């Protein structure tokens, strides 16, 4: 899952990015509202972590701009402004959730997982296809009762496919799911991960289908 973190405190931003990377999120940082606005015009994200007191363009103005453009990307505000009036105002402006600073990283991750589940239309933390099951809380894949042993990159690819099960996921979007710590992924490397996953998913009741020129799709298969 690819996140945009907008936070002008560089130490806090670095700390959050490191912890979220360790949890398997790809995080892109923006240190001003204008920088975030530019990224949102050129990139696609699964969610935004938005501070309100940003230089050049405030978090509130960025949120207003997003929603006026009918951009429905989920927004979790993280702010030291914690009055009831602030929370209600920004939820009414289109924020999906609000977390006051200082916060515990476990609460942030729990809120983020909940927000992403709602955005995907599935409030259940467990997502399934065939005999493949994924628990977004524990981040464990299972085939029936067997835990699937995956590398971090294999995990990221399979999660991206499973969250859009039955739909085509482009190679570009899959590569984006692997952009962690600015480590770029080549198309050839992506193909290697797909081959490895296919071997590990044998007898799982699912298949990764190649749609030439379009990307890949995860689908249940007949026994």
Key terms for this structure?
transcription regulation; phosphoprotein; four-stranded antiparallel sheet; 223 residues; DNA-binding; CheY-like_superfamily; five-stranded parallel sheet; alpha/beta; single chain; 11 strands
Structure description:
This protein has 223 residues and is α/β, with parallel strands linked by helices. The mean pLDDT is 86. Strands 2-1-3-4-5 form a five-stranded parallel beta sheet, with helices on both faces. Strands 6-7-8-9 form a four-stranded antiparallel beta sheet, with helices on one face. The protein starts with a strand and ends with a strand. The relative contact order is 0.11. Helix 6 crosses helix 8. It is elongated. It is built from eight helices and eleven strands. 40% of the residues lie in helices and 22% in strands.
């Amino acid at each position: 899952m690819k996140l945009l973190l907008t936070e002008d405190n560089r130490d806090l931003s670095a700390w959050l990015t490191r912890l979220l990377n360790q949890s398997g999120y790809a995080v892109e940082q923006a240190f001003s509202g204008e920088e975030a606005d530019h990224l949102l015009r050129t990139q696609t994200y699964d969610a935004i972590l938005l501070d309100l007191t940003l230089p050049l363009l405030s978090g509130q103005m960025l949120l207003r701009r997003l929603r006026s453009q009918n951009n429905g990307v989920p927004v979790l505000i993280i702010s030291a402004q914690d009055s009831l009036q602030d929370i209600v105002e920004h939820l009414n402006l289109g924020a999906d959730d609000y977390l006051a600073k200082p916060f515990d990283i476990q609460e942030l991750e729990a809120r983020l997982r909940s927000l992403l589940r709602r955005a995907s239309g599935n409030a259940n933390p467990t997502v399934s296809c065939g005999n493949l099951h994924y628990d977004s809380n524990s981040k464990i894949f299972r085939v029936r009762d067997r835990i699937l042993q995956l590398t971090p990159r294999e995990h990221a690819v399979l999660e991206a496919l499973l969250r859009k099960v039955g739909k085509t996921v482009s190679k570009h979007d899959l590569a984006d799911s692997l952009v962690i710590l600015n480590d770029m992924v080549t198309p050839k490397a992506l193909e290697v991960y797909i081959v490895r996953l296919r071997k590990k998913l044998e007898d799982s009741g699912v298949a990764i289908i190649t749609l030439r020129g379009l990307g890949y799709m995860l689908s249940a298969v007949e026994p």
